[in-house]
Amino acid sequence: MSMHDHDPALAAAVFDAALARLAADPPELGLAREPGALPAGTITATGLGAERALGLLRDALLPASTAIDHPGYLAFIPGASTPAASLVDLLVSVHALYGGSWLEAAGAVHAENEALAWLAGLAGFPEGAGGCFVQGGTNGNLSALHAARERARHGGGRAARVAVSEEVHSSVRSMLRVMDAGALDVPGGRLTGGALEAALEADGDGVFAVVATAGTTNLGLVDDLAGVADVCGERGLWLHVDGAYGLGALCAPSVRERFAGIERADSFIVDPHKWLFAPFDSCALIYRDPAYGRAAHRQHASYLESLYVDDATFNPSDYGVHLTRRPRGVPFWFSLAVHGTDAYAEAVESTLALARAVADEVRARPELELVAEPELSVVVFRRHGWRLPDYGAWADGLRLGGRAFVLPTSHAGEPVARLAFVNPRTTLDHVRAVLDAMS
Ligand SMILES: *Cc1c(COP(=O)(O)O)cnc(C)c1O
Q1: What pLDDT is stored for residue 313 in this prediction?
Q2: How many Cα atoms occupy the beta-carbon half-sphere of 132 within 13 Å?
Q3: CA distances (Å), 138 to each of 142, 173, 193, 269, 382, in order?
Q4: Which of 171, 273, 378 gets mutated to test ligand 1 (max ligand atoms within 8 A of its CB)?
Q5: CA trace torsion 137, 142, 147, 152 (10° rounding)
Q6: Is 136 in the pocket of ligand 1 (CB under 6 A)?
Q7: Mean pLDDT per 10-residue run, the chain (439 residues)?
Q8: Pocket perturbation via mutation, ligand 1, pick of 271, 328, 375 by most ligand atoms within 8 A of CB
């Protein structure tokens, strides 16, 4: 058998392993190992054969990786892909889809655009808004800010800096360095129109865009999008909203009001791999006017021009920092198509309700104290009398016991506990066990 021949035995074994993982309730949490404890010498001249290599993957390597969808995984931003989305990710892989162009992947791109249109509609963007799915929020922020700078340059302005808040995500600062652009730091926690206006008045030279955050990663707080949009509108600045985490809740009626003003942004991102139940890795990047994305990102080469004959065709490669891409939005589209948008609203609402119940639980325990009232689904609190090593021991105990994956963070220089909820399968009982371990 040559290596390009279909091997039914291998296919069956891979599907069995995938189905076993889907049926695991809950999955093993999985634990990182020392590098020396993992199998080495796996690449050989003649190959290990399918059975041995799959054995290594299934029995040694995957268990040494954490299941982000474990109901006790509450660190960073968890993920909780629906089985529908995960299964279609497998199917997309075997279809060899080049997702950069309409010419090659019209059906897949159309499906992705249906999903993007749902998100654009939730944000109140006009007809004609659109973009593409990129690898993650970091790439999404970079792609949007590059488009913003290109617009400013074509307008003849000095486009040197982007206004950001203290709580802006690390990826924005990192991508500004990639762009060789500067930051105008707007003081204060939550970005407001007033603070932005004052900072621009004092030192606005060369500012071409503003990044507002809809759901900060550390505390889950939403900037004053309406106030910021007012200032951007008056000054002709591009408003980009980083909602990698928080804009998953655009579909949730109980918090929709917190995002008022997003309808006036020039671009926004949201990661379906965070709070919209899609597999890694997937960021929806949406422009109010995709022409700016295209002007900034379309690549030109003699062999590419045949993709651009017709402006009605939609090439995802035109809208981000990429050329070749997998149509990573298709699993998200499929799950949305299967379950309907009401199911998404309900699932997000259930995680919001859990976060509120956890906040109540924290209030009811005298040894604990909330650091901030949760606005979305991140709950941050202190354990009186604890220092960083105590939080570390708490996290290690839960992780090594295979029960939960939590990590401390810091707020205003103080180490604190932080739990993030996006998984509808996480229950209050799971969280009570995590809190009990602090008493
Ligand atoms: C997670 C996150 C990002 C980065 O997204 P990646 O997909 O990890 O690249 C950016 N901004 C915010 C607010 C985030 O929560």
Answers
A1: 82
A2: 32
A3: 6, 10, 25, 10, 30
A4: 171
A5: 130
A6: yes
A7: 96 97 96 91 97 97 96 98 98 97 96 98 98 98 98 93 97 98 96 98 97 96 98 98 98 98 98 98 98 97 86 90 98 98 98 98 98 97 98 97 96 97 98 97
A8: 271
pLDDT at 374: 97
Q: Is 113 in the pocket of ligand 1 (CB under 6 A)?
A: no
Q: How far apart, in whole angstroms, are the C-alpha atoms of residue 343 and residue 85?
A: 14
CA neighbor of 123 nearest in space, from 216, 1, 212, 209: 212
Assign a CATH topology to domain 96-338: Aspartate Aminotransferase; domain 2 (3.40.640)
Q: How far is the CA of 266 from the centre of ligand 1 (A)?
A: 18
Q: What is the pLDDT of residue 421?
A: 98
The pLDDT assigned to 1 comes to 86
Give residue 389 CA to ligand 1 midpoint distance, Å.
Answer: 27
- For residue 277, the one-letter residue type is F
Tell me the CA–centroid distance for residue 167 and ligand 1, in Å. 12
328 lines ligand 1 (CB under 6 A): no
CB-based contact 77:436 (threshold 8 Å): no
Q: What kind and span of H or E run contains 233?
A: helix 225-235
Q: What letters, b where the CB count within 10 A reaches 16 and e where it falls short, cover 165-204?
A: bebbbebbeebbeeeebebbebeebbbbbebbbebbeeee
- Position of tokens 């917190």? 258
- C-alpha separations of 196 from 199, 210, 243, 261 in Å: 5, 9, 19, 15
- Give the nearest ligand 1 atom to 243 CA: 13
Peptide bond before 126: cis, by omega within 30 degrees of 0?
Answer: no
Closest Cα partner for 374 from 212, 253, 215?
215
Q: Enter the pTM of the model.
A: 0.98
Question: How remote is the CA of residue 103 from the centroid of ligand 1, in Å?
Answer: 31
pLDDT reported for residue 306: 85
- From CA 253, how far away is CA 256, in angstroms rounded? 5
